[in-house]
């Protein structure tokens, strides 16, 4: 910077300081405390982000605990069933389970027995013919009912994973189409 220009700028600043000392005091405080305050805000945001990373979809809940409001047994089933379909994230199964039956906790018709008005049943709300077709092609692993039942969370969640996989979720090909096939409603996707 030109030394004469710098000297002129300093003179203007001095004159302004004499005429408006309060305004310049605020500016001085901002210049003095602003950068450290900004650093503190950045550190707090980074720490909050890192702390929240523990709840990501790939994070395991400690000691078989829950993530959000998902019961521990359902969490295990969502994670294990999703592994049967490369590219299907367990959170998709969990979202469907939440919408359809509040992870099996809903007392609405068709969740634990019978059918709802759309003829769907079980925690993942399968139509019986659809469920039968899926489990005939993709039998659920041991741990469910014998024969498989759409009311059994193990069987229903594994069947949902297989259905989504066959409908486009495999390798992330077309997750939108897979979810739309599961429930033909655009709001659902």
From TrEMBL:
Region (Disordered): 132-151
Pfam families named among the record's database cross-references: SLT
Domain Transglycosylase SLT, residue spans: 81-184
Annotated keywords: Hydrolase, Membrane, Transmembrane, Transmembrane helix
Alphabetized Gene3D superfamilies for the sequence: 1.10.530.10
Domain of life: Bacteria
Transmembrane segments: 24-48
Any one GO MF annotation of this record: hydrolase activity
Protein known as: Hydrolase Nlp/P60
């Amino acid at each position: 910077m030109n030394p004469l220009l710098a000297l002129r700028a300093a003179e203007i600043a001095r004159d302004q300081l004499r005429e408006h000392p309060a305004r310049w005091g605020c500016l001085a405080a901002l210049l003095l405390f602003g950068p450290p305050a900004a650093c503190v805000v950045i550190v707090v945001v980074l720490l909050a982000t890192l702390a929240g990373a523990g709840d990501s979809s790939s994070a395991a809940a400690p000691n078989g605990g829950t993530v959000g409001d998902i019961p521990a047994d359902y969490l295990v089933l969502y994670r294990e069933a999703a592994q049967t379909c490369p590219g299907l994230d367990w959170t998709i199964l969990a979202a469907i389970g939440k919408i359809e039956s509040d992870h099996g906790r809903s007392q609405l018709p068709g969740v634990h027995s019978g059918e709802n008005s759309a003829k769907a049943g079980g925690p993942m709300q399968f139509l019986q013919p659809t469920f039968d077709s899926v489990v005939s092609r993709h039998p659920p692993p041991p741990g469910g009912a014998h024969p498989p039942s759409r009311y059994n969370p193990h069987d229903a969640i594994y069947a949902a994973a297989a259905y989504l996989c066959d409908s486009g979720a495999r390798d992330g090909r077309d997750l939108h189409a897979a979810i739309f096939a599961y429930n033909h409603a655009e709001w659902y996707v």
